[in-house]
Specification:
Blueprint (H helix, E strand, L loop, with lengths): L2 H14 L2 H6 L7 H13 L7 H32 L1
Helix pairs in contact: 1-3, 1-4
Keywords: Coiled coil
């Protein structure tokens, strides 16, 4: 397995690790189809011919997604504190 494949797998696995929290949280089941697709892609990464630019783009997209989830969680925490 190449370093690019490892990096891509890391991105996908990072997002998939959030699945229980995403389903339990405010996001509900909005991402079911996307998470299912990611699981399919994960099983195919070993056969993919990847380019550095593509993997960087996906790493950036993953980082952006994670930061948006973090901001969303912070917003919910603030709302809960106001209601208490």
């Amino acid at each position: 397995m190449s370093k690019l494949q490892v990096r891509l797998k890391n991105c996908i696995q990072t997002i998939l690790e959030l699945e229980p929290d995403m389903k339990a949280g405010v996001w509900g089941r909005y991402f079911d189809m996307e998470l299912s697709s990611l699981k399919d892609y994960l099983s195919q990464v070993d056969q993919m011919d990847l380019a550095e630019e593509d993997v960087k783009r996906l790493e950036n997209a993953t980082a952006t997604f994670l930061s948006e989830l973090k901001l969303s969680r912070k917003g919910n925490i603030r709302k809960k504190r106001l209601l208490q």
